[in-house]
Amino acid sequence: MITVMGASGNTGGHISERLLRAGEKIRALGRSVERLAGLQRRGADVRTGDAADAAFLTRAFEGADAVYTLFPPDLQSPDLLRKWNEQGEAIVKAIRDSGVRHVVFLSSIG
Asked: What's the predicted TM-score (pTM) here?
Protein backbone atom coordinates (compact mmCIF):
# COMPACT_ATOMS: atom_id res chain seq x y z
CA MET A 1 0.00 0.00 0.00
CA ILE A 2 1.20 3.49 -0.88
CA THR A 3 0.12 6.64 0.93
CA VAL A 4 -0.26 9.72 -1.28
CA MET A 5 -0.43 13.21 0.21
CA GLY A 6 -2.37 15.76 -1.84
CA ALA A 7 -4.18 12.92 -3.60
CA SER A 8 -6.82 15.20 -5.08
CA GLY A 9 -4.31 17.78 -6.31
CA ASN A 10 -2.27 18.10 -9.47
CA THR A 11 0.68 15.77 -8.90
CA GLY A 12 -0.90 13.67 -6.17
CA GLY A 13 -4.00 13.18 -8.30
CA HIS A 14 -2.00 11.91 -11.26
CA ILE A 15 0.03 9.59 -9.05
CA SER A 16 -3.09 8.25 -7.33
CA GLU A 17 -4.81 7.53 -10.65
CA ARG A 18 -1.76 5.77 -12.09
CA LEU A 19 -1.31 3.65 -8.99
CA LEU A 20 -4.96 2.61 -8.96
CA ARG A 21 -4.83 1.74 -12.68
CA ALA A 22 -1.76 -0.39 -11.95
CA GLY A 23 -3.70 -2.29 -9.30
CA GLU A 24 -1.91 -0.77 -6.30
CA LYS A 25 -3.72 -0.15 -3.04
CA ILE A 26 -3.48 3.48 -2.00
CA ARG A 27 -4.27 5.60 1.02
CA ALA A 28 -5.32 8.98 -0.35
CA LEU A 29 -4.73 12.02 1.88
CA GLY A 30 -6.20 15.45 1.42
CA ARG A 31 -8.19 18.27 2.96
CA SER A 32 -11.56 17.60 1.34
CA VAL A 33 -13.69 14.45 1.50
CA GLU A 34 -15.61 15.70 -1.54
CA ARG A 35 -12.50 16.07 -3.68
CA LEU A 36 -11.31 12.59 -2.68
CA ALA A 37 -14.68 10.91 -3.30
CA GLY A 38 -13.77 9.64 -6.77
CA LEU A 39 -10.68 7.91 -5.44
CA GLN A 40 -12.69 6.42 -2.60
CA ARG A 41 -15.24 5.00 -5.05
CA ARG A 42 -12.34 3.32 -6.87
CA GLY A 43 -11.13 1.65 -3.67
CA ALA A 44 -8.72 4.11 -2.11
CA ASP A 45 -8.56 4.38 1.67
CA VAL A 46 -9.36 8.09 2.03
CA ARG A 47 -8.26 10.19 4.99
CA THR A 48 -8.60 13.91 5.54
CA GLY A 49 -6.53 16.08 7.82
CA ASP A 50 -3.95 18.80 8.20
CA ALA A 51 -0.49 18.37 6.65
CA ALA A 52 1.00 20.09 9.73
CA ASP A 53 -0.54 17.51 12.10
CA ALA A 54 2.18 14.94 12.81
CA ALA A 55 -0.22 12.60 14.62
CA PHE A 56 -2.60 12.53 11.62
CA LEU A 57 0.29 11.92 9.21
CA THR A 58 1.80 9.22 11.41
CA ARG A 59 -1.50 7.29 11.42
CA ALA A 60 -1.82 7.78 7.67
CA PHE A 61 1.74 6.58 6.99
CA GLU A 62 1.58 3.53 9.29
CA GLY A 63 1.50 0.27 7.38
CA ALA A 64 2.45 1.90 4.07
CA ASP A 65 5.22 0.44 1.93
CA ALA A 66 5.95 3.95 0.66
CA VAL A 67 4.66 7.51 0.93
CA TYR A 68 4.50 10.38 -1.56
CA THR A 69 4.80 13.65 0.32
CA LEU A 70 4.67 17.31 -0.55
CA PHE A 71 3.83 20.72 0.81
CA PRO A 72 0.20 21.32 -0.13
CA PRO A 73 -0.01 24.62 -2.02
CA ASP A 74 -1.54 27.50 -0.09
CA LEU A 75 -0.33 30.68 -1.70
CA GLN A 76 -2.92 32.65 0.29
CA SER A 77 -1.12 31.94 3.56
CA PRO A 78 0.15 35.12 5.23
CA ASP A 79 3.39 33.34 6.24
CA LEU A 80 4.03 30.58 3.72
CA LEU A 81 7.58 29.85 4.87
CA ARG A 82 6.43 29.34 8.47
CA LYS A 83 3.61 27.08 7.24
CA TRP A 84 6.00 24.99 5.12
CA ASN A 85 8.38 24.70 8.06
CA GLU A 86 5.56 23.39 10.28
CA GLN A 87 4.45 20.94 7.60
CA GLY A 88 8.02 19.79 6.99
CA GLU A 89 8.56 19.11 10.69
CA ALA A 90 5.27 17.17 10.85
CA ILE A 91 6.15 15.11 7.75
CA VAL A 92 9.62 14.22 9.08
CA LYS A 93 8.21 13.27 12.49
CA ALA A 94 5.51 11.12 10.89
CA ILE A 95 8.03 9.33 8.67
CA ARG A 96 10.19 8.53 11.68
CA ASP A 97 7.31 7.58 13.98
CA SER A 98 5.44 5.47 11.42
CA GLY A 99 8.46 3.44 10.37
CA VAL A 100 7.79 3.88 6.66
CA ARG A 101 10.96 3.05 4.74
CA HIS A 102 10.42 4.54 1.26
CA VAL A 103 9.60 8.21 0.73
CA VAL A 104 9.25 10.44 -2.30
CA PHE A 105 9.09 14.17 -1.57
CA LEU A 106 8.09 16.73 -4.18
CA SER A 107 10.42 19.58 -3.35
CA SER A 108 9.50 22.43 -5.64
CA ILE A 109 6.60 24.68 -6.46
CA GLY A 110 6.04 25.11 -10.18
From this structure: 0.93
User: Looking at beta carbons, which pairs linking 87-94 to residues 24 or more positions away fall under 8 Å?
Assistant: 87/51, 87/52, 89/54, 90/51, 90/52, 90/53, 90/54, 90/57, 91/5, 91/51, 91/54, 91/57, 93/54, 93/57, 93/58, 94/54, 94/57, 94/58, 94/60, 94/61
| Per-residue pLDDT tens over the stretch 66-83 | 999 998 877 788 998 898
Rg of the chain, C-alpha, whole Å: 13
Q: Which of 22, 94, 10, 96 is nearest to 54 (CA)?
A: 94
